[in-house]
Amino acid sequence: MIKEFRDFIAKGNVMDMAVGIIIGAAFTAIVTSLVADLINPIIGVITGGIDFSNLFVNLGQGDYASLSAARDAGAPVFAYGAFITAVINFLIIAFVVFLLVKMVNRVKDAAIRKQEAAPAPDGPTQEELLTQIRDLLSTRT
User: Fold this and answer.
1) pTM of the model
2) What does the alpha-carbon distance between residue 62 and residue 74 come to, in Å, rounded to a whole number?
3) Residues 88, 72 contacting (CB under 8 angstroms)
4) DSSP states of the chain as a string?
5) Over the range 31-61, which residues count as b (16 or more CB within 10 Å of their CB) and which as e?
6) Mean pLDDT taken over the chain
7) Separation between Cα atoms, residue 126 and residue 132, nearest integer Å
8) How far apart are CA 83 and CA 78, in angstroms?
9) Angle 83-81-89 (CA atoms, 0-180°, nearest 5)?
10) Which tens digit of pLDDT belongs to each residue from 57-115?
């Protein structure tokens, strides 16, 4: 059972998936910073400084100036602004990932085209060598 597990883990696709998850987790910090530190401020300027994340409806008693004040007081709130912010962030992140995947695919396609355009190596092919070996072995018998 341990040997089977070791064989499973050693397969290339499992290792590739593990590397992808690790790189993805590290990349999340970069994309989150891009959205929070660069794109959201631009959206804030365009929308006149509207901060969706603080929009809420108080479902309980009292009057609160901000969502954090209502939550600190333990008031039940319908925080629709946080949801709008999450949707906007998702769309921005999805678009950034789309652009990155598109760029990686272009680089990969260019590398494949370059490899296909490379001149064939000098000398006989593997099939020609095998044919020669076969012919030499058949003449020896």
Assistant:
1) 0.55
2) 11
3) no
4) -HHHHHHHHHSHHHHHHHHHHHHHHHHHHHHHHIIIIIIHHHHHHHTTS--GGG--EE-SSS--SSHHHHHHTT--EE-HHHHHHHHHHHHHHHHHHHHHHHHHHHHHHHHHHHHHHSPPPSS--HHHHHHHHHHHHHHH-
5) beeebeeebbeeeeeeeeeeebbebbeeeee
6) 83
7) 10
8) 10
9) 50
10) 888 888 888 888 888 988 899 988 888 888 887 888 788 778 888 998 999 998 888 88
Sign of the alpha-carbon dihedral angle for 91, 97, 102, 105: negative
Q: Are 56 and 68 in contact (CB under 8 A)?
A: no
* Residue predicted with more confidence, 77 or 9: 77
Alpha-carbon distance 140 to 108, whole Å? 48
